[in-house]
Amino acid sequence: METSRTFFIPISKLPGELEEAVMSAYLCMRAIDEIEDNSQLPSEAKINLLNSLSNIMKSTFNEADITALFAPYKDSLPEVTLQLNDWIKLSPHSATPSILNSTSKMAEGMGKWVEKNWNIESTEDLDQYTFYVAGLVGVLLSDLWKWYDGIECDPSLAIGFGRGLQAVNIIRNREEDLARGVDFFPNGWKMTDMFTYARTNLELGDLYSKNLKVGPIYNFCKIPLALAFATLDAIEAGEKKLTRNSVIEIVNEVVVE
Q1: Which residues contact 85 (CB under 8 A, 6 or more apart)?
Q2: Those residues with Cβ within 8 angstroms of residue 19's Cβ, 6 or more apart along the chain or in another chain
Q3: Cβ atoms of 41 and 203 closer than 8 Å
Q4: How far apart are CA 147 and CA 141, in angstroms?
Q5: Which of 60, 108, 66, 71 is closest to 87 using CA atoms?
Q6: Domains of the chain: total
Q7: CA of 92: how far to CAs of 61, 97, 127, 147, in Å?
Q8: CATH number of domain containing 67
């Protein structure tokens, strides 16, 4: 679930409590993402951790439960995961239920896909996988926009926003994923099919952002979208990724003061 990394640049541009809430969400999702991607843990351990975290977050949050859950795995888990309690507490109290709810659903979905060994055979499988690892990011962001500023967003566009960003990461990490024995392409898909899937969903994300008023939240959404579209263009042109200078130029072009 690399979509969360895409949001790092614009988080600092958000105001006050919204920055704290989105940073909390970003770090919580990074924490469970590192469990799914962990090369040191067997699948059984990943499934146990993800399902247990999902259940813990469905009930009243208890810091001791997460500490106890991580204890046997502390030598295998990165700091961003071991500090999950800190990331939850970073959020303003009134935003925490939304963050726990979406992170719980994400952990449960990740656990299911670890159990399936990420075996994606159809477009429906890909839609389900990208919903859990990225569409839920869009859902959670919409919840936080409503919490902070009363903004109502279309859930289907929010999910497309996340899916599009994840599809770009699938394209970008294609060789690395195949090397570790994971293929996120449905049966019979070529790279052109995944590009179409990515652009179709990014266009939904573009509609999502156009429904937002100009300001920090609008900028927050437009930055990763612009970077995603530019990344697809760069890959099609034979480049592996955007240069640092390109990223800076795109961010400066997109941000509306």
Answers
A1: 63, 66, 67
A2: 11, 12
A3: no
A4: 10
A5: 66
A6: 1
A7: 14, 10, 32, 11
A8: 1.10.600.10
Tokens of 55: 């259940």
Q: Judge whether residue 160 has pLDDT over 50.
A: yes
The CA-atom distances, in angstroms, between 241 and each of 3, 68, 196, 223, 245 are 15, 40, 18, 16, 12
* Separation between Cα atoms, residue 194 and residue 201, nearest integer Å: 11
The whole-angstrom separation of Cα 161 and Cα 77 is 29
Identity of the residue numbered 51: N
| Domain membership of residue 201 as a residue range | 3-254
Q: Which residue has the tokens 């469990």?
A: 35
Separation of alpha carbons 197 and 163, rounded Å:
9
Alpha carbon dihedral 67, 44, 38, 102, in 10-degree steps, equals -60
**Nearest CA among 119, 208, 108, 121 for reference residue 163:** 208
Helix, strand counts (H, E) of the chain: 15, 0
Handedness of CA 228, 234, 238, 241 (dihedral sign): negative
* 209: phi then psi, degrees, rounded to nearest 5: -70, -30
pTM as predicted: 0.91
Q: What is the pLDDT of residues 46-66, one digit of tens each?
A: 999 999 999 999 977 789 999
Average pLDDT, the chain: 92
